[in-house]
Amino acid sequence: HDPTTAFQIIRRLRGSRQSINHIPVQDKNGLTLTNSKDQLNRWKEYFDEMLNVDTTINEQVLQQIPSPTVDDEELSRQDAVPTLDEVVKAIGQIKNKKVPGKDDVPAELLKAGGHYIAEWLHEIICDVWEQEVMVKEWTEAIIIRLYKNKGDKRICDNYRGISLLDVAGKIFV
After folding, report:
1. What is the pTM of this model?
2. With the C-alpha atoms ordered 122, 126, 132, 135, is the resulting torsion angle positive or negative?
3. Nearest CA among 95, 129, 128 for reference residue 111
4. Separation between Cα atoms, residue 170 and residue 83, nearest integer Å
5. Which pLDDT belongs to residue 44?
6. 91: how many CB neighbours lie within 10 A of its CB?
7. Per residue in 152-172, pLDDT tens?
8. What is the pLDDT of residue 74?
9. What distance in Å separates the CA atoms of residue 100 and residue 76, rounded to the nearest whole number?
10. Which tens digits make up the pLDDT trace of 36-91?
11. In contact, 167 and 102? CB cutoff 8 Å
12. Can you list the positions of beta strands (E) in 109-149?
């Protein structure tokens, strides 16, 4: 029932990630940053500004959205602790050959573990469900920048970000 220790063991079995090459990037004023720490701070600043935008919600528009009707049986099903069969099904539906999240555990590893891994993950999911405390690692993402293949590679706007999430967290969701 200790996901942190379990994932640490799996990471040790897989080995460590390769280091990422840092290319020069421009700050907001157009100055080229060559220091790795400055570059990382610039990328953090860029994605923080892009992803954390203040928005105003029009309450009138929200009121116009129809609420879905869900019967009591469906509500009860949705509130129930996930079953082992649901966890097995979710593991089977995760796509292979995708870059794993922070835990570095790929879908193929969870699938190869068969019923034993499914039972282990089911126990963790049940604990999360019943205690209503999420595994911290499942709430975190690694943002990877991908060059759009147009424009100056030193300009942050010429990249898009993708979020890498832990596979176990995807199964929970």
Report:
1. 0.71
2. negative
3. 95
4. 16
5. 95
6. 21
7. 999 999 999 999 999 999 999
8. 87
9. 33
10. 999 999 999 999 999 998 888 888 888 899 988 888 888 888 889 999 999 999 99
11. no
12. 141-147
Closest alpha carbon to 115 in 123, 104, 126: 123
CA distance 135 to 160: 27
Cβ neighbours of residue 153 closer than 8 Å, sequence gap 6 or more: 23, 147
Q: Are 80 and 144 in contact (CB under 8 A)?
A: no
Per-residue pLDDT tens digits for 92-137: 999 998 989 999 999 999 999 999 999 999 999 999 999 999 999 9
Tokens of 56: 């105003």
Which of these, 17, 2, 30, lies nearest to 102 by C-alpha position? Answer: 17
Q: What's at 153, amino acid-wise? A: K
- Regarding beta strands 141-147 and 32-33, do their DSSP bridges make them parallel or antiparallel, or are they unpaired? unpaired
Contact 130, 68 (CB under 8 A): no
Scanning the structure block, which residue is given the tokens 């099903």?
A: 77
Question: Which sequence spans correspond to the domains of the chain?
Answer: 3-13+81-172
| Size of the chain, expressed as the number of residues it contains | 173
pLDDT at 12 over 80: no
